Amino acid sequence: MRITTAQAKAGTLIEALPWLTRFHGATIVIKYGGNAMTDEALKQGFAEDVVFLQHAGLRPVVVHGGGPQISSALDRLGIESTFTAGLRVTTPEAMQVVRMVLVGQVNRDIVGMVNRHGPFAVGMSGEDAHLFTAVRKQAVVDGVPVDIGQVGEIIKVDPGAVRALIDDGRIPVISSVARGDDGEIYNVNADTAAAALAVALDAHKLIVLTDVEGLYANWPDDTDVIDELRAEELETLMPTLSSGMVPKMEACLTAVQGGVPQAHVLDGRVPHSLLLEIFTNEGIGTMVMP
Ligand SMILES: Nc1ncnc2c1ncn2[C@@H]1O[C@H](COP(=O)(O)OP(=O)(O)O)[C@@H](O)[C@H]1O
Ligand SMILES: CC(=O)N[C@@H](CCC(=O)OP(=O)(O)O)C(=O)O
Question: Which residues have a Cβ under 8 Å from the Cβ of 35 and sit 6 or more positions away?
């Protein structure tokens, strides 16, 4: 019998049924990286996916970055961007720009795109309602601690306000800025912030969207993507990883070791990668399990 286009479409919908059942009511923390936000059509696709998840009965929470957007704003102001161990060296002057770009620009853009579909997204900074409390973090280079300015390490998460929003049917969209009990504000890597929130919310999944297919086994060679690995395998790989992948894979490890059953790194350049990962049998990207 010939399968018509309409039947093939029905087949795709039915393939999603077991996943819809499994993830009904599940909290999914999605980290949306600055490198995955460059294309307008992809950004709109991301907003559609998040709203789709909400309508499908899941509870999506977005934590966003904006590293490239911060770097261009600093550049326009004539301030050089320097990174140590994958983290931005954040002077008090740069911190004002980080906060302005993440909370005032990137957050507003994402909230606006999601809300084209209805009154769902509510933007928050990690400073709001004591969501993230941080202390000053030092980077370690060749075993030596190095000062990197107002970069924060999250020591406490109070997810009360986020839970209230989710329970009210909203989609929280959160910037990775934290407050300190010392009255400072801190710049936190967005992968790290997403992992901390996923653990605090007892999320079912952490999904990290970036600009590569997943974790490559022999980087900078990009032929072999690792599709699945266990936490202990990742722990042994950690010292061999470089640049942006370090905080990303560290975040996956923190999440699964903190009780999140699955953490994924996905290619945000693939249209609707979120839906493909959650609702199809193949899954895509790299999955980390406890
Ligand atoms: N083993 C690896 N597999 C994949 N990417 C890697 C690896 N090691 C380093 N990278 C680099 O990490 C980058 C992703 O990190 P980053 O640029 O910080 O992304 P984002 O802005 O999404 O947080 C990739 O574009 C790639 O250049
Ligand atoms: C301390 C630190 O490095 N903070 C990051 C915060 C933004 C971020 O993490 O953005 P991406 O997810 O797009 O990389 C920064 O200033 O770039």
Answer: 67, 68, 210, 211, 268
ipTM of the complex: 0.95
CB 190 within 8 A of CB 154: no
Instruction: Find out whether the beta carbon of 66 lies less than 6 Å from any atom of ligand 2.
Output: yes
pLDDT confidence tier of residue 258, bands split at 50, 70 and 90: very high
Domains observed in the chain: 23-289 (3.40.1160.10)
Upstream peptide bond of 220 is cis (omega within 30 degrees of 0): yes
| 187 annotated to bind ligand | yes
Q: Are strands 225-226 and 215-216 parallel, antiparallel or unpaired?
A: antiparallel
123 is in an annotated binding site: no
pLDDT digits (tens, 9 = 90+) for 176-195: 999 999 999 999 999 999 99
Q: How far is the C-alpha of 141 from the C-alpha of 65, rounded, in Å?
A: 24
Query: What is the dihedral angle through the alpha carbons of 192, 197, 199, 200, rounded to the nearest 10 degrees?
Result: 140
